[in-house]
Design goal:
4-stranded parallel β-sheet; alpha/beta; single chain; 14% strand; 5-stranded parallel β-sheet
């Protein structure tokens, strides 16, 4: 059982809470593999409940996987497209919260370009809120699915050397993974141009390298990050060709990592910028497709945890003032 009714970030979660979500995600992953092409619900925990996907930023993997996850738990899903919403007419986040709250949804899945937006929303709605990525802050379900992917392939996370490489400054995925992987006992390294390292990031208990081949030396997992040019001022990196030469992952650079090193990427990928196609599609080395598969199972675990928390709250008598 999670300690709060919302899932806003990995920071502050303890190993038991993280492992409980990973264990349940593991069970859902097995069940989905056994069911094959049968997409009927695997549980009715969300039967009669409404889940709203409120995405202020474009998304494919995250939005679709949350939709599939909710449907496989028996829930009713509503996707709100920003392009067709009142936000385009000037409606604020809090006005949107008031409107949605009047519709009595049970769970809101929120992606927003501003850090802290999911937390702000959670203070103004009755529904449980799951952060699907807020600005440069966190993306908790991505870190959870990354951890599940590693655990199912390697068998453990504690003691692994994991290099997170690329645009760390703009990556909420990096921050959530730093919190989660460090909490579970991995050695986390950040590998990035100095211009793409946030000030004070070393205080999060990570080591830092500004050269790719040195940074991934001996690493068990090499996790590449997308260059988020939409969040940049335009002066942080050289040309894409030069960036690939220095920080793009190819077979020759990967030879610096451990012999059985595995490759990850949260997507979407810029092929030929942060990773070449041969590495991304390597069936023996790349876990990228598995990450997508684990996304549905992990989000099923998170949605179920929210529903379970709501059920406990509903059964708990409220104290009289």
């Amino acid at each position: 059982m999670l300690p709060t009714r919302h899932l806003l970030g990995i920071e502050g979660m303890n190993p038991l809470e993280i492992h409980s979500l990973l264990d349940r995600g593991d069970q859902f992953a097995d069940a989905m593999q056994q069911s094959g092409d049968d997409l009927s619900p695997l549980s009715d925990v969300l039967q009669g409940k409404t889940i709203i996907n409120l995405f202020y930023e474009n998304s494919t993997r995250t939005r679709v996987s949350f939709e599939l996850a909710a449907k496989r738990l028996g829930g009713a899903v509503l996707n709100i497209a920003l392009a067709g919403s009142s936000v385009k007419k000037g409606e604020t986040l809090l006005d949107t919260a008031t409107t949605l709250n009047a519709m009595h949804p049970h769970i809101l899945v929120v992606r927003h370009n501003c850090s802290g937006a999911a937390r702000l929303l959670s203070h103004h709605v009755d529904a449980a809120v799951i952060n699907a990525g807020d600005g440069r802050h966190e993306h908790p379900t991505q870190a959870l699915l990354d951890a599940l992917t590693i655990r199912r392939r390697v068998g453990h996370i504690e003691g692994l050397k994991i290099a997170i490489c690329g645009d760390v400054a703009n990556s909420r995925v990096a921050r959530s993974n730093i919190h989660l992987l460090g909490t579970l006992g991995a050695e986390v390294r950040l590998v990035s141009p100095a211009t793409l390292l946030p000030t004070g990031i070393e205080q999060m208990g990570v080591s830092i390298a500004t050269e790719l081949e040195e940074g991934i030396r001996g690493a068990d997992i090499v996790m590449m990050l997308r260059l988020q040019t939409e969040r940049m001022a335009g002066t942080e990196t050289p040309s894409q060709r030069e960036y690939f030469n220095l920080f793009g992952l190819d077979r020759s650079k990967l030879m610096r990592a451990a012999p059985d090193a595995l490759i990850m990427h949260p997507g979407p990928m810029n092929r030929g910028v942060e990773i070449d196609s041969a590495m991304a599609d390597d069936a023996h080395k790349s876990l990228i497709r598995t990450q997508v598969e684990m996304g549905v199972a992990t989000r099923m675990a998170c949605l179920e945890a929210m529903a379970d928390k709501q059920a406990v709250e509903a059964e708990t008598p409220k104290e009289r003032p």
